[in-house]
Specification:
With 154 residues, the chain is mainly beta. The chain contains 2 helices and 10 strands; from the N terminus they run E-E-E-E-E-E-E-E-E-E-H-H. It has helices spanning 111-122, 144-147; strands at residues 3-5, 16-24, 28-30, 33-35, 41-51, 54-68, 75-89, 92-93, 104-105, 108-110. It starts with a strand and ends in a 7-residue tail after the last helix.
């Protein structure tokens, strides 16, 4: 699923609705490297609250991100817990600044775009295989995590 029609929501007496949505997520490029989630999909927990014609969408999902370490290019397997909120009035996203993407237009939630951006916001500044990754030797390209402290060039 990439889009979700908010008009299909069925609210309970408290004007809340909860859904589990399997959202397809294409791999993306971060720092020049390709990263992907398992099976190119996340299970989005969508909690929607309604007051009149206004909606508050709350998203939550857990996933793992796979790709290359920014320093040594070894595999990265990063666990992420992601949350976010979107405000909707009259079927349109609210509070969208110029240059930002509106995730809801005409009551259509662009779930894949929202999930992609929430995931990107949850990422650390650098994706590393481990916090103390030493990277690659600038002269020979050896993985400094593997060759050790004694690695030198004459």
């Amino acid at each position: 699923m990439r889009r979700f029609d908010l008009r299909s929501l069925r609210f309970d007496r408290s004007d809340q609705a909860e859904y589990r949505l399997p959202v397809e997520l294409d791999p993306f490029i971060f720092g020049g490297e390709r990263y992907a989630v398992p099976d190119d999909r996340v299970d989005l927990s969508l909690d929607v609250s309604r007051v009149g014609n206004k909606l508050v969408l709350r998203a939550a999902f857990s996933t793992r991100l796979h790709g290359a370490c920014a320093r040594c290019l070894q595999d990265v397997d990063l666990a992420l817990e992601v949350t976010g909120a979107e405000y909707v009035a009259g079927g349109e996203s609210q509070g969208v600044e110029e240059g930002e993407e509106a995730y809801v237009r005409g009551y259509q939630l662009q779930a894949d775009h929202w999930v992609r951006d929430l995931l990107a916001d949850a990422l650390p500044p650098q994706l590393l295989c481990r916090e103390d990754c030493r990277g690659l030797c600038p002269e020979c390209g050896a993985n400094l995590n593997e060759v050790g402290e004694a690695h030198v060039h004459a």
